[in-house]
Give the backbone structure.
Amino acid sequence: GPIAVASASWNGGVCSSGPWPFCDGPVITVGGSETTAGTHASAGVSLPSPGVGGAHSEAFASYGYVSASAYANSGVLGFGVSSLWVSNTEASSDASFDDLITINGGVGVGTVEAFGTFSCCRYYDGSGSARFQLGTEEAYAPWGSQTSGFDVTTQFTFGLPFMISGSVYADARDFAPSDPDQGSADGFGTVTLTSLIVLDAQGQRLEGYRYSSASGSRYALEDGIFTPEPGSGSTIVIALAAVVAMFKLRAAGALRRQV
């Protein structure tokens, strides 16, 4: 099902004798982190005084919509005078959904076309990625584009399930974590599925067909009638997990390469 994960962390040190970087005594390691998971995940850390700022990430996951964002910006007031220094401030998040859709109401092979939008990828020094998959076809958010549309078409066989999925990733790391005036990072990625249309074997738009999903979720299949599968239970869950596993091995590596 849909899953979102968010994490944030910072680490550094405190000089036990004298200001950083002119420390002439032992350094005490300090830091903090947080990680959460669910369909809505949020994580954040804040630096203790005289440190300022911190890192935050958030992710949402549902069938047909996933988003992830990450932000990092920190510093130390009085750097060179304070005993606190920061070596790293960062945040990351990711979200995904996977499902199977079955369409009935035709014979042989049909075509399904999905429309939606990507939002990606960064402000300043963050990074992000967004991917959507329909059947065997995939689309990725263009690097550097803030908002763009996607149009993915794939063939399917009436009465047999096909894959639908989306995944996003965001990362942010302050490149000057002890400097309060430099190093802000902001990454993000969003996939929004808006509609799908179905064509029959002759390429004519199909109306009045019936569709179901392994998750029991409704999708914006235009002119289609949603029919929950009776007694889906564990059989569908196992089938979905098996198909998802095959695609994730390939999709995970491709998604990371977009970052």
The radius of gyration is 23 Å. Residues 135 and 162 are 5 Å apart (CA to CA). Confidence is low (pLDDT under 50) at residues 232-239, 242-259. Residues 233-257 form the longest helix (25 residues).
